[in-house]
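Thread: Newbie trying to understand structure tokens

Hi all, I'm a second-year student working on a class project, and my supervisor (Dr. K.) asked me to get a predicted structure for one chain before our next meeting. I've only ever worked with sequences, so writing a 3D structure as a token string is new to me. If someone could post the tokens and maybe explain what I'm looking at, I'd be very grateful. Here's the chain:
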Amino acid sequence: MKLDVIKLDGGKAGTVDLGDEIFGLEPRADILHRVVRWQRNNAQAGTHKVKTRSETSYSTKKIYRQKGTGGARHGDRNAPIFRKGGIYKGPTPRSHGHDLPKKFRKLGLRHALSAKAKAGELVIIDAAASEGKTAQLAKQVRDLGWKRALVIDGAQVDENFARAARNIEGLDVLPSMGANVYDILRRDTLVITKAGVEALEARLK
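---
Reply by user tm_fold:
Sure, no problem. This is what the structure looks like when written as tokens:
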């Protein structure tokens, strides 16, 4: 499929030929869902923790005699039945991550790129270069109508462009190796440089 290439000032810069095996697939929600779940689960800290009855700070002295009270038998106040006692089978630190084959992850990225292309939310720019001035870049982004956009560059992001984009709300910048399904889907517009297209096609073929 062919797509027009624009400059940051809105001018035209020719066209680019995008491979159908990466940008022309029929998006599948089940594949995208599995990859996003894998990403978010791996990002989850898993540091939640509760105190068990061996970790709470009450005395371990037997609270009353075993027999003759008419009440239930208890050893100490740390039992889960009492207020401020230990928690029974509560969460403990663990990893929430799970495995997903590399082939499936690549497939998910292809479907995410194809989903943006099919929805008309894919923009190809000549290059992501700037003088490092946030105000100037913010005006260009506003004129282009990008409200929540992700810019994917080649192997390296231009330092001045990254500095200018750093303080613009709703604008994220990633190198091609940082491109991922979750960040692509959560933004309204996907912007890829020509260098980024070449890098993604080399990575996903």
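A couple of things are worth pointing out once you decode it. Helices lie at 20-23, 29-43, 102-118, 134-144, 159-165, 181-185, 194-204. The first helix runs from residue 20 to 23. Feel free to ask follow-ups in this thread.
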